[in-house]
Design a protein that fits this description.
It contains six helices and eleven strands. The protein is an alpha+beta fold. It is globular, with a radius of gyration of 18 Å. It binds zinc ion. The site of zinc ion has 6 residues, from helix 3.
Amino acid sequence: MSCNHHPDDSTLLCYGAGSLPDALAMVVACHLAVCDQCYDKVVEAEQIGLGLMEQEPVESISQSSRDWMLAMLDESVDDAGSEVGKTSDVNSDIPEPLCPLIGHSFSDLHWRTMAPGMKQFILPASRGKLRLLKIAPGTFMPSHGHSGSELTLVLKGSYSDELGRFSVGDVADVDPDMTHQPVADTHEGCICLIATDGPLRFKGLVPRLLQPFFQL
Ligand SMILES: [Zn+2]
């Protein structure tokens, strides 16, 4: 798949090092399943990490710590490798890493209405928030800023915002200081996988009042 928007290199590096919160890591894993370019970067980052460890003075790191880190890096490469190029056999909209969490169909999920034209489905994550968002054609999301990182992967349809147009496979890696207002494109609805590691910052009163109820 040819993608136009990718996670930042720093995000890929953190993913390769295993230091991304699991909510954000799931979005990256799903993107790697369709983007060879980013997969290659992650493998390269992991190889650099291994190279740095090779140069580490023996006395500065215990053998048990060294063995553990090498095992973690190997596991990370294997995990990413097993996901590359794979989407669910049953529904090609759903990347393989996501299938254990939601199964093979968006329509079987218990979507919860947030506002006219917007529904969400919360996914489990131990660090950060992870959700699917379904947006009806032409629907404007409330304008919002961020208090942390936000990664959005388009799984179906497309949307546009101040950063451009995002289609299936594209990732928006939004800086904490950026404010944006996504709008689903008009020809079909949009389903996105969104991870955050801090609360959103809404400008409008109504979204701020609703925020606690929808874990935004
Ligand atoms: Zn990519």
